[in-house]
Automatic annotation (TrEMBL):
Gene3D superfamilies attached to this UniProt entry: 2.40.10.120
PANTHER family for the chain: PEPTIDASE S12, PROTEASE DO-LIKE 8, CHLOROPLASTIC
Origin superkingdom: Bacteria
Region named Disordered: 310-329
Keywords from the UniProt entry: Hydrolase, Membrane, Protease, Transmembrane, Transmembrane helix
Organism: Lentzea pudingi
TM region positions: 12-33, 53-71, 78-95, 107-128, 148-167, 192-213, 220-240, 246-266, 287-308
Pfam family, one: Trypsin_2
InterPro entries: Chloro_Bact_Ser_Proteases (IPR051201), Peptidase_S1_PA (IPR009003), Peptidase_S1C (IPR001940)
Ranges of biased composition (kind: Basic and acidic residues): 318-329
Listed name of the protein: Trypsin-like peptidase domain-containing protein
Length: 520
């Protein structure tokens, strides 16, 4: 017996949960007061101070709508949610973020409108305000029409997300890849954005021309994994970012269920029948799949073929520290490292401060010490070729002595953090690199991985400790292992005369940078 009602019930609940997740996740950011929303209010001339007062109200309304669709789905609120999703998506290009941001948010409006249309438009006010008990029975022809709608939504948001990498080179994408070490696989982090973006655009197009069970399953997994990068990079409200994308996971699940109706497998071992059909379709279309694999492979290889900057091995003559007293006895890609290190000059009321900074995986972002930038809004950044540029101080994490500066660096190569502290041991040799006029370098040995220090008047902070005190010009620069991977950001400890050197662990520094940069 073909009990299609069970399939329609599954579709109904999948969409209800997805729409609720979208609005509850989105509303949570309003309650939290997300700075990334300020440009959207500014489109209507609303000042930041007023916008911050309006955000919680907007957020609470979103959350209430999300709860409503779970407890009592109703056509009129669903229509509003679809239009609201379309409106908020359209605000992104209006605020200068580009059309790809709009396309990437297709699920924001496509999923609630899909649920509304599946339930059927009301014929009277009572039907628009009454509770939706179930969606009508779907015959194969009607399921096919809705299948095309959800294929279009999936395709648009995949192409939009891919476009953010290929055409916008969105920094937050790179932050996510860097949080799991993927940026270490390429010479330039932009290459990773390009490769992943092209792949997503290819998958989006494939959904349109070749819908299949396996492809829909892949999209669900892909979206869930890529959105979990918000968690790995320590973004504020990371889990709400994952929850807010509920529609992106639900659309391919609904497409799978619709395909089971189209193929007449609903209610009769549907999942197994779809899997068997999938295997048959794979055998029939092996040539198409091979061609797709070849195209994606060529795109990936082409994108990753960007030549790495020239590297050199640190020699005994080039490896002297700032005092000239020690030589490095390990290999370090010093030529590449020095291309990423900059000098930071900050003017303060009680005198100028000069320190070091270095380019990270996020384009245009330089990390340094908070005590160097202090309360300055702008600093001078001297890049390796001697060019002086004005940098904007985005923020500080004073408790970690981490400062973040945005600057037009002319495309300096980034330093990467590799596996973080996973491979670092007491007794390992490390290198502190600075740039203040002539580049300086000091070598040291790790003596502790979690030594408690106090930066300024802040609470105690676990830090890396080495056996060599650092020249003040090196502070704010990278502490590297012998492979040239960043393991810490060097800092100074007030009133310390132990002769030791200290660095903020890269895991803590990276999380601070992600918080400061946010969605800027």
């Amino acid at each position: 017996m073909n009990d299609g009602r069970s399939t329609e019930s599954k579709i109904f609940w999948v969409l209800r949960v997805a729409v609720a997740a979208e609005f509850i996740g989105h509303g949570a950011f309003g309650v939290m007061g997300k700075d990334g929303w300020l440009p959207y209010y500014a489109v209507f001339g609303i000042e930041d101070s007023l916008a911050r007062n309006l955000m919680p109200i907007t957020g609470l309304i979103d959350i209430a709508l999300g709860v409503l669709v779970l407890l009592r789905p109703t056509r009129l609120p669903l229509a509003f949610m679809g239009m609201w999703g379309l409106f908020t998506a359209a605000l992104r290009p209006l605020a200068g973020e580009g059309v790809w941001e709009f396309l990437e948010r297709a699920y924001n409006f496509g999923v609630p409108l899909g649920l509304l249309l599946l339930a059927g438009l009301g014929s009277s006010w009572s039907s628009w305000l009454g509770r939706i008990r179930q969606i009508p029975r779907l015959d194969p022809a009607r399921a096919r029409r809705f299948g095309w709608g959800f294929r279009l939504v999936i395709s648009i948001y995949l192409i939009g997300h891919g476009g953010l990498g290929v055409f916008s080179d969105k920094p937050s994408l790179i932050r996510g890849y860097d949080s799991v070490g993927l940026t270490n696989l390429v010479a330039d982090s932009r290459t990773l954005n390009l490769t992943v973006g092209l792949f997503e655009i290819g998958v989006g197009l494939l959904v349109l021309v070749y819908p299949a069970f396996w492809l829909s399953v892949f999209v669900v997994i892909w979206k869930l994994v890529t959105e979990l990068l918000f968690v790995t990079m320590g973004a504020r409200g990371a889990w709400f970012e994952v929850i807010e994308r509920g529609g992106a996971y639900a659309a391919p699940v609904v497409l799978i269920l619709l395909m089971s109706i189209i193929r007449g497998t609903a209610g009769s071992g549907g999942a197994n029948s779809v899997v068997r059909g999938f295997l048959r379709s794979v055998r029939r279309r092996m040539s198409t799949l091979r061609m797709f694999a070849v195209v994606v492979g060529v795109m990936a290889v082409t994108a990753c073929a960007t030549p790495a900057p020239p590297t050199g091995t640190l020699t005994s003559e080039a490896a002297r520290d700032s005092t000239g007293s020690r030589e490095a006895d390990r290999e370090l890609p010093v030529d590449e490292v020095l291309l990423s290190v900059v000098s930071i000059e900050a003017q303060h009321s009680n005198g100028d401060v000069i320190g070091t900074g270095f380019r990270v995986a996020i384009p245009g972002i330089v990390v340094t010490n908070a005590h160097i930038v202090r309360d300055a809004a702008e600093v001078t950044v001297v890049i390796p070729d001697g060019t002086r540029r004005t940098g904007q101080v985005l923020g500080k994490a004073v408790e970690l002595d981490i400062g973040v500066v945005r600057v037009d660096d002319g495309g300096l190569p980034p330093l990467h953090s590799g596996s973080g502290l996973a491979g670092l041991r007491v007794g390992d040799q490390v290198f502190a690199v600075g740039s203040s006029g002539p580049n300086t370098l000091a070598t040291a040995t790790v003596t502790a991985l979690a030594h408690e220090i106090r930066v300024g008047s802040e609470s105690p902070q676990a830090a890396l400790r080495t056996d060599t005190a650092l020249d003040p010009r090196l502070t704010g620069g990278p502490l590297l292992n012998r492979r040239g991977e960043v393991v810490g950001v060097t800092t100074v400890v007030a009133d310390d005369d132990s002769g030791d050197g200290f660095a903020i662990p890269v895991t803590d520094a990276r999380a601070a940078v992600f918080r400061i940069v946010g969605d800027r």
